[in-house]
């Protein structure tokens, strides 16, 4: 989502243009060609780097764990542990030579590591910016576990994670959080400080983990007086080095570090991890695809390096399979979507527009045909009570004015109504009775009833949509934005609208689900308390949000 009045540069970095020219369009538009072009563009080391010299970790004079620890994608028998070594996080090399580093890890039943479950050694390779992804298998289901890393004489902070329940378990309940949109330059990550203390099983990040926009020496709206950020953050990210450094800036935030250490995360990207409102291989300014796909390859690689993701999500050039499925016993199935990489270009030049033949063309897609089939087939095979879809952009109809033919967002599912109709028909044909869509992107909290016919309030309610507000994007926001009355009047299926920062928690049970919208009064200053702005329940077998 673009801030009003934001000026976007018209051209890509010289490195990307040079690489595109060097390779040529025809050869580039293959995965192999894209990977080769990426290496050319960012001077990535070749295949022999895994045999690079080993750095003696005993020589580390500064803490290498400045970016914290994280875990992700819990399975019944496995956890994924992450860290990245960066004793000097605001330097391009992270303060390490281009050598591999041995990193020891421990997984335990207790936070004092007296009951060790597993331990081992992983290698932090320089070609992955010294990131470490450890997949620990053969674990017992439904267990809380603690982990930490060691390099030389340094020990990381302790992280807390967990395995999912066994596939066939009739789990009584699950409590998760949903977050999105954390522009560093728009304010402090105060909601994460509160989330770190909240009692949730897992956190779903719905996109815009970072923003490509420049961050000035005072941290934008943070208005630092106790530090000066280096100039290397004060330009838009386009190269692999740019994106890596931007993750280092974000992940050095203490509130974000605390939330990652406290809970396993399940992440998916939206647009700003790469570039605002891109669609497939088309960027915001419709520059040559061979240039943009180089940028996308750099962004996707840096994303994987800096997130607790498993090996199937490792990008191959400008392509990465981010959509995937996780289960929580027989209680819930989570189908995590990617609505950026495969979508058709936004209709009518993007922005707000009345739906018409261009946006309603049934050939257009927001998921791509393969992902759409995967989602619907997964519903047909689902044995879960709740089918939850963590994804990026507003799914329900959202009229933006009170005109008879109202404008809607061409970047959201309203701009891809044929896609939405196919997905909802697929849910109905699969017999999905308790559908919940999780959404980010719009920097506000919404609660929607998903209707069979959004223009007929009396039509069947097919599910609910819970939209998590931003962590910081949009600065402090307002409880009732200026368009509050318009939106609530134009959209009878919209049950809640709040423009403050925060996050949402959802408690799934065998009889009902409860959503609590949690907000803070400010992010441009530190220390704002957390309040619950509203709570809703939707009952099993009788979808529809009711205020608590």
UniProtKB/TrEMBL annotation:
Residue intervals of the Phospholipase D N-terminal domain: 67-163
The PhoD-like phosphatase metallophosphatase domain, residue ranges: 176-517
Any Pfam family the entry gives: PhoD
SUPFAM superfamilies xrefs: Metallo-dependent phosphatases (SSF56300)
CDD domains cross-referenced by the UniProt entry: MPP_PhoD
Name assigned to this protein: Alkaline phosphatase
Organism expressing this protein natively: Streptomyces avermitilis
